[in-house]
Amino acid sequence: MGQIAGKSLTELKRLLDRGEVSALEIITSFKEQYESDRKKPVPLNGYIEFFSDAEELAVKADEARKTGTSGILEGLPIAVKDNILISSRKATCGSAILQGFTAPYSSTVVERLMNEGIIPVGRTNMDEFAMGSTCEYSVYGSSKNPVNREYVTGGSSGGSAAVVASGQAPCALGSETGGSVRLPASFCGTYGFKPTYGSLSRYGLVAFGSSMDQIGVISGDPDDIALVISVASGFDSNDFTSEDVDFSALFPLKRMRLKGKKIAIPEELSGEGIDKEVGIVLERFCSWLRSEGAVPERVSMPLLKTTVAMYYIIAPAEASSNLARYDGVRYGLRDITGNNLEDLYVNTRTKGFGDEVKRRIFLGNYVLSAGYYDAYYKKAMQVRYLLKKELNRILEEYEYILSPTSPVPPFKLGSKIDNPLSMYLTDICTIFANLALLPAVSIPAGTTSDGLPVGMQLTGRMFGEKGLLRAAKTWFLKGRRGEI
Ligand code: GLN
Q1: What is the 3-state secondary structure (H, E, C) of 344-393?
Q2: Nearest residue CA, atom 5 of ligand 1?
Q3: DSSP structure class, residue 233
């Protein structure tokens, strides 16, 4: 049983399909991993809740397999970020303001996976409302990096990355508005994938920055990601920004022939400002690409210098509008200590939101307010348009854009929490993909001299998920052969 916990979703599927293991054994094994970690002096705190009925559901899945009524994911576990709705389960977005809220319906992505028999086993920790880069801004306390518990997991999907990297789940759903799947995947040493905007429905993903929000997948094996996307993707009438893509044949992934493929490395994300040890891993990754026959080239993309400024205008602007709905009337927390309706709003929001969320609401309202709208929001949207154009032009000539996932390796818990600007700068390599709606994958590419994980990121063309995941799989297979 001990061996189950380290296995990927696709390996477990193979074992289940062959009848070599039961769903109950699988779920019990992951639960035991979680329970034993909880007893440690510093638990990872990846799960906010491990569902108490997960084993019961596994028994049902085993029965369905026996009676031949099973789906293709029957009995397989997945962990789900706390901002992705699962019908009749709690969902709190790591926030006090949603305490007591139970989801009345499932997100489309979860529903499609559950229709094929997957078992969501628990809710994972996150920065409040997905605003953060470390998973420290959670009302449940920070998650810890499984490689070294004094370090951050990255965020905001830190719980999802921690449970996957520590063998408490084979695979997890996270969400991205600006790198929140790729960054923690990179810090915890797993694969993290953000699909093209529109590939996966956003229905049932609690809104943060709607023009960028996407559900993403974290796993130790790109094939798991392909499997999940193949089942969950495609048009959904509940989300008219979703696209009619057909990724049903994404899984299983084949190796990618990288020979002759041109890969652009932005000068702006590979020189100054990039940590030396991260730079070394980038160089090694380039050597591997060359050994596969690919042609990495440095290319200047000046607009990449503006993405942090752009993102931290657009995302808070959208958030300030999306978070207006938490008024103490409709969801979760309600403070009735005041005298009137205005008091109800003010007291609930003052008590319910943490400092970072309040900072974003202030920022968002400011950049949208009369007199500042043109100078900030409108300008940011104009530059966003230019960025999309520039990146799409580059991606006509080059197959992928390669950069580190983060400019720095994982850092110690608490070291950036009082300095929002330095926290925001952690996102410099990831957010261009969100602004330009492009798919991107973080690949565990090496470690620092202290053994901390360092991720490399490939960004591809709109709806180019197949090529990206195949490239990631090619790297994965090289690791399997022990060549790293
Ligand atoms: N770190 C970014 C932020 O705080 C990313 C968040 C996200 O992708 N959800 O906004």
Answers
A1: HHHHHHHHHCCHHHHHHHHHHHHHHCCCCCHHHHHHHHHHHHHHHHHHHH
A2: 178
A3: B
Looking from the CA of residue 131, the nearest atom of ligand 1 is 4
Which residue(s) pair with 441 in the sheet? Answer: 193, 458
SS3 content of the chain, % helix, strand, coil (to 5): 40, 15, 45
Q: What is the pLDDT of residue 480?
A: 61
Taking the centre of ligand 1 as the mean of its atom positions, its distance from the CA of residue 87, in whole angstroms, is: 25
Give, for ligand 1, the residue of 81, 126, 156, 434 to mutate: max count of ligand atoms closer than 8 Å to Cβ.
156
User: Strand 214-219 to strand 453-459: parallel, antiparallel, or no bridges (unpaired)?
Assistant: unpaired
Cα–ligand 1 centroid distance for 302 (angstroms)? 22
CA of 58 from ligand 1 middle (Å) equals 34
- Given this model, what pLDDT does residue 1 score? 45
**Confidence at residue 479, expressed as pLDDT on a 0 to 100 scale:** 75
Chain segment 28-62, per-residue pLDDT in tens:
999 999 999 999 999 999 999 999 999 999 999 99
Q: Mind telling me the catalytic residues?
A: 81, 156, 180
pLDDT of residue 484: 42
Express each pLDDT in 309-338 by its tens digit: 999 999 999 999 999 999 999 999 999 999
Judge contact between 10 and 223, C-beta under 8 A. yes
Higher pLDDT, 483 or 160: 160
For ligand 1, atom 10, the nearest C-alpha belongs to 131
Q: Look at the alpha carbons of 480, 282, 155, 473 in this order and tell me if their dihedral is positive or negative.
A: negative
Q: What percent of the chain has pLDDT over 90?
A: 96
Give strand ranges (E) for 220-324. 262-266, 295-299
Whether the per-residue pLDDT at 481 is higher than 70: the answer is no
What is the pLDDT at residue 446?
97
Q: Which of 95, 127, 313 to mutate to test ligand 1, by most ligand atoms within 8 A of the CB atom?
A: 127
Q: Return all residues near 374 (Cβ < 8 A) that are at least 6 apart.
A: none
* pLDDT 10s digits, 64-119: 999 988 999 999 999 999 999 999 999 999 999 999 999 999 999 999 999 999 99
* Cβ proximity of 206 and 129 under 8 Å: yes
Q: How far apart are CA 475 and CA 484, in angstroms?
A: 9
Using CB distances shorter than 6 Å, the residues near ligand 1 are 130-133, 156, 176-180, 208, 315, 427
Give the tens place of pLDDT for each residue, 187-204.
Answer: 999 999 999 999 999 999
Quote the ligand 1 centre to 324 CA distance (angstroms): 19
The CA 426 to ligand 1 mean position distance, Å, reads 10
